[in-house]
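Late entry, iron/sulfur cluster complex.
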Amino acid sequence: MRNLVLLLGDQLDADGAALGGFDPGRDRVLMIESRAEATHVWSHKARIVLFLSAMRHFAEMLRSRGWPVSYLATDDPAPAASLADGLITAIREHRPERVVACEPGELRVRKLLEQACRSLDVRLELRPDAHFLCSGTEFADWAGKRKTLRMEFFYREMRRRHGILLEDGAPAGGRWNFDAANRSAFPKDGPPELPQPPRFVPDRMTRDVIAMVGKRYAEHPGTLDGFHWPVTRGDAQAALADFIEHRLPGFGSYQDAMWTDMPFGWHSLLSAALNLKLLNPREVIAAAVEAWQRGRAPLPAVEGFVRQVLGWREFIRGVYWLDMPRLLEANHFGHDRPLPDWYWSGETQMNCLRQAIGQTLRHGYAHHIQRLMVTGNFALLAGLQPRAVHEWYLAVYVDAVEWAELPNTAGMALYANGGRFTSKPYISSGAYIGRMSNYCRGCRYDPKLRSGPRACPFTVLYWNFLDRNEAEFAGNPRTVLMARNIARFDAAERRAIRQSADRILATIPQL
Ligand SMILES: Cc1cc2nc3c(=O)[nH]c(=O)nc-3n(C[C@H](O)[C@H](O)[C@H](O)COP(=O)(O)OP(=O)(O)OC[C@H]3O[C@@H](n4cnc5c(N)ncnc54)[C@H](O)[C@@H]3O)c2cc1C
Ligand code: SF4
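Prediction complete; structure with ligand written out below:
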């Protein structure tokens, strides 16, 4: 055999680099379901089902082309204990001239493949991942020239380089950034009528995987009732078309808004399909831009969406490869509190967290502001250990892959890398959550109170965080106003905040 082509679970692209030049007469595809990958963090059941079902559908599609595929399934009589194990077994069986793969999205997996091939003295050809619009080298070149990394400047360069939303070389609509027109809260009496996203009813293959995961990973978090994620390219394309037609027009305005029992809002729900490579970011961006050109969606909404896919997604991946492996250990504030159990159950009296975690366990999904300003904000204010918080985010979302999750968690939510690419920590008191949602209305705490038994933990811990880090905040032009706000409190008020905070921090598991 010439090439043993290893396809990982997040590389399900028939036009991807690994399959380039595939010759069914001389090559063979290898796909491995490994228990170690599903248990490396305590994965949500829906995340496991999504990966396994998408892999099985992809293998079936390749076989229907007449391509030889070795598929090592979790429910085989002798399943692979790990990716490395499966790869080593297959190399011994097929004796290929070389193993070919697209470069993995995770450093741990890359090392594991290199080690497995080295141990058998087989050549490993890792091909650059053409899925992304910015390669690792291009990002490193861009970053190398700069003291600080700012997504906004990267994004503008990407818009220019790829000619996206430009008119005569200038940004469409005369501005690069429409944030001011986006990000409204819902009206006080609730969101306007929301177009429901499509639900992809599990076919026979997905139902089998659901049954298998329900049994083998019964103790893992989350539920599989109503699993609805797209697992094939066809379904992912339908999900994209539905978003462009029904929710893109309202995407910008309500990007940051949250509401009780409204898990999806106007969001695209495309991250999992993108991260598994069932969708290509170029087609996603092109579809959004075309909607604007045809007058079907306003420019602020389209720009806001393109910014996420062309800007944030590519930027975050660039940062991952630039800053690994130190990003894994980053802990700027030296935080070491354990993650409370209610992060895994949603059983907390704080309604915002109950809502955000509850929908996470139900769907494997929460939108960006719920991740950043609810679960992430609490983790930072309460001083939870970054590594434990990272493992939680990597476990509970269907779109979770380390290159996307870790920079968002360590860099954006926890400021654990000391502001490498954010100008300030993303922290807020309960007032922000009260403004952007109706969560506080159904809560036993009051976002306005800084002390007493009904004081909102976010509010108390926010002021306590400023109190503890006043000098650092005073030295940063982006946070100097926050430092001035805490400086206005007299000694008695600051003492009361510290006492309330100590009480809250001592009882986190019961909050
Ligand atoms: C702590 C934390 C952890 C996160 N973990 C992940 C993760 O594991 N995987 C993941 O794909 N995203 C992650 N994100 C980013 C973002 O929250 C999700 O991409 C988004 O919520 C997915 O929902 P959506 O598809 O409806 O996104 P939309 O709001 O519709 O946005 C469109 C697309 O833009 C991309 N995107 C938007 N923001 C980001 C971002 N900050 N980083 C990378 N891509 C972005 C996604 O591909 C997304 O599908 C995380 C954010 C935070 C704060
Ligand atoms: S009062 Fe505080 S804890 Fe309760 S929902 Fe509002 S922000 Fe969350």
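The CA atoms of residues 177 and 226 lie 37 Å apart. Will revisit in the morning.
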